[in-house]
Amino acid sequence: MKTAIVWFKTDLRLFDNETLIKAIAQSEQIVPVYCFDEDHFKKTQNGFDKTGSYRAQFLLESIQNLDDNLRKLGSGLVILKGKPEIEIPKIVSHYRAKKVFAKREVAFEEKNVEHEIQELLFKMRCELETFSTSTLYHAEDLPFSIKKIPDVFTVFRKKTELDATIRAIFEAPESIQSPEIPPIELPTLADLNLEFEKIDKRAAIQFKGGESEAMNRLNYYFYESKKLAVYKETRNEMVGSDYSSKFSAWLAMGCISPRTIYSEVKKFEELHGANDSTYWLIFELLWRDFFRFMFKKYQTKFFLYSGIAVDKPNSKEKNEAALKSWIEGTTESEFVNANMIELKETGFMSNRGRQNVASYFCNELQMDWRIGAAYFESQLIDYDVCSNWGNWAYLAGVGNDPRKHRYFNIEKQAKDYDKEGEFRKLWLPVK
């Protein structure tokens, strides 16, 4: 029987998943798998967990939900643990699969694993076929080649909006042919060398992983509360669940696709009318695309101290005391402290907060920006390799910012975006 492996990674969904749909179309039966890559649960060179407990918990919930949804269609998820370059060939051999379908990667570490697996599978006479499933616009549909993508977002956006089209979404499959797949055996946080950390009750939102939760959030934000209609006016607020869409964690894990959100924005506009807010959510999805395409263009450069810049102002390598103070929220800036405590206690921080604490790290503390980016990687539930490292390079003046050295006046920002001090009162100890 013609069997294929569908290797799920950060595309943990059934709806608008081209990888899954193409695998079903080209095979008699499929075996969905997820591999817990042991390298994702180690310490980074800066001493942080590469995947912290908040994100790991969200990941486990997302995988459980994917398995639940697959079983409703007659399939299920096989869980692998170890190195994908060892475990994927093993599962291919076990099921005598002739093809592996997977999401296409763009970042350095993920791309290396993908290449290694491709070479190993080739020797087994098994093909690895990858699909781009993370962006709103498909790379092949852009009005420029990857090498010629403009480095300035506004130029990229205007040309793309004018000359490129967004592809139609893929409906979820109605049934899936699979061999009998045993009940799922998920690792615990302890198995992943992590300890459970409860999200603080003051959190802007209590994230729960999975495609079902992603669709619930979309339905609530668009149709139940209609908060989408005022998104542009409220997106820079800092307290509560509804000042922004909060889709980022589900997008990062691939529980929902940008195109699904886009198609629902269009439906909302038909029902309630288009305005600056409905456009602005699509505008933010374009930012995600831009960073992902920048990674395709520059590959490893976003992980270098100099980024994609020609020159970079000197900074201190690492100041342990200043780093600890920044992480713990005990710096001289109350606004920075409130944001950093929110991140530490919840795994989330507003977009406005992220820009300010990154600017403070780079400009006031003058430390190697990559240390800050690595801490965010560990701590954020919504960590996305391209958005995280792309945004940090941007704030450090070595990325895509045409102004090159963007400096935030933190006290002014606090007055502008936390006028009454509501956010600071929420997160800082009472004096």
From TrEMBL:
UniProt entry keywords in alphabetical sequence: Chromophore, FAD, Flavoprotein
Ranges where the Photolyase/cryptochrome alpha/beta domain occurs: 2-136
Domain of life (superkingdom): Bacteria
Cofactor(s) of this protein: (6R)-5,10-methylene-5,6,7,8-tetrahydrofolate; FAD
Cofactor binding note: Binds 1 5,10-methenyltetrahydrofolate (MTHF) per subunit. Binds 1 FAD per subunit.
Record carries keyword Flavoprotein: yes
Pfam family, one: FAD_binding_7
PROSITE patterns according to UniProt: PHR_CRY_ALPHA_BETA
InterPro entries noted in UniProt: Cry_DASH (IPR014133), Crypto/Photolyase_FAD-like_sf (IPR036134), Crypto/Photolyase_N_sf (IPR036155), Cryptochr/Photolyase_FAD-bd (IPR005101), Cryptochrome/DNA_photolyase_1 (IPR002081), DNA_photolyase_N (IPR006050), Rossmann-like_a/b/a_fold (IPR014729)
Chain's role: May have a photoreceptor function.
Family: Belongs to the DNA photolyase class-1 family.
Entry protein name: Cryptochrome DASH
Organism listed in the record: Flavobacterium frigidarium
